[in-house]
Amino acid sequence: MNVGNIEANAGEYRFGYLEVAKSRSGISPDIPVHLFVGAEPGPTLLVQGAIHGAEVIGSIAILNFIEKLDPKTMKGNVIAVPVVNRVGFELGERGSRIANKDISRLFPGNPTGSVPDQIAYTYFNEVIKQADVMLDFHAGARTAYERYVLFSAEKDPNNLTELEKKRRKLVVAFGLDQAGFFPAGTFGANQAKQAIEDAGVVQITLEFGGGTGWFTNGADNVRDAERGIWNTMKAMRMIDGDFEADGPECTVYNAGIVIWKADVDGLFIRKKRFGEHLHKGDVYAVLVDPYTGDELALMTAPQDGIVIPSGQEWPTIGATSVGILGNIDRVENRNDTDLYLSFD
Amino acid sequence: MKIGSIEASSGEKAFGFFVTGQTHGRFPAQIPLHIVNGANDGPLLVVQAGLSGLELEPALVLPQVVKALNPADLSGTLIVVPLMNTSGFEFEQVNAAWDNKDLNTLGRGRANGTVSEQMIYHYYQQVIAKADALLDIRTGAQWSYHHYVGVYKTGEQEKSRQLAVALGLDQVLLGQPEDTSSAFCAAEDGKQVVSAWLGGGPGLRDHRAETLSRIEKAVLNAMKYLGMLAGQPEHESSSIAVIDAHTVLKPTGERGFVFMDSDKRGKAVAAGEQIGIVRHPFEGKVIEVIKAPKAGIVLHAGGSWPVLPEDTTLAILGDLVEEVNV
Question: Is CB count within 10 Å lower at the N or C end of chain B?
Fold first, then answer.
């Protein structure tokens, strides 16, 4: 198997850099790729971190994971990319300052477009399209805190596609007790995710941790992110073993209720935390004057809903969502669910 | 008491912006400032915070502390600057946006310098120079997490040390590294100066309440200690460790993911003992082991988030010189 110029045979591990387009000053943000080819054939798992450059919890989990992975004792292939967006990682930023684009939104890319478009094109064709399953690790960067599996809304929940059936299993198998999707027309859907789905790749996003919780539970989140990668390999029958999870249940939220920043700006103070149920009009957060402490605005729930484990903690915010509410769509019990994905 | 156009008579409070100049785009260079002028005579305490535009926790609580104070109960005057670096705050950066100056490096300022240097000059002349004591509140911005009090080894060290002990935190650091800040200059000029390092982004989600409580208590304890408010300082515990700093660790070798061992904070470590590691960000291997160069107590201080800016303090070590029972 090869990823660009990186090649490994059965039972081998190789590390290298996938060559991508150079910037105008000559920066080559070539993408680090760990390639594991199992002793026996099987499906291909892609795990990637830091496509948003400041979201590094998954990156650390991937590094821990590859330290332990032995290609001789697994089936199939693993492509592990700890940091996709090297420029954003270097500068501690979400996107790439080269052309100010977010690579995660550019798939399938464009071979004659801007440098980020070209990078997206190379990565999509050399890496993503080779995968059967893709774990895309995100986080709250330095300013928020999150912990749930995010997946695309199903087109018709009563008539699932084969890919959607596999994705449902994967969501539960990963091992977190919370998951969510944004209904069509609300939030998060984009052309890039559709391109990945059109390529036949079962993709989930892991919103995992964030800097504001790092001192207390950074290590726990890294551990559980790694656990999810191992669980995914088990679900894909690449390795044997029991699943480990937060608990027997995974609550899936229909999470389309976004609380947006108020019209005024100031210091943001979150008042509600994950799991709290808000009625329409209940206060989620306040904005205060940074110098006098006077209350400037209240941010309230636009509808009834439960705070899903996602939200801003840092006191300054941009023109962005500050919290997401959802309602329980279903509760999956791992003990009653077939967690194995078939790729025959 | 009058600072610029902000004026509070005896027994009054006032808030306003101390305007020190204008930028070339004609934005005001200004410092938000509260004056609480006590009904009775007493010392002048300045509480300043937010000289970095990313040190924000003090601004969440200092205005509330001012609101709760009754000038009639106060002896002396309290000046509070909850968030000095308004342009850094606006544009979410450490330095002032107008001239890219780090306000913590400008000493006594310069009357004919850049916009920020002029601002610090007027602030130093009109505020700090008149003060008896300065409580400089710092945080770890988005990268570090702290709770200790630092004292410079210059000027009225013993008086500053006593004020530091009174703030109520468990650790007092003697020998806070010399720098070019206004606070250091104030210490050189004989003011009682303490730097309360409290909070930081990596602990914000889980430690917000205790950080804000520590900031509030530090201000009130300082006022009680200085005789500005009735009552005795309240301490976190019955014993305060006074530590003489001998080592400030900063990144010197490899760069990558930095993991400092937070379990060793507050504990004694031996010379050569591992207190952190640096990992290659793409390959994962450990490329540097960070060791204590000398035995000592590790302060509740230092880098936490694994991707750290250059020149971030990773850890501070020192010798325990006294345990003060309070």
Answer: C
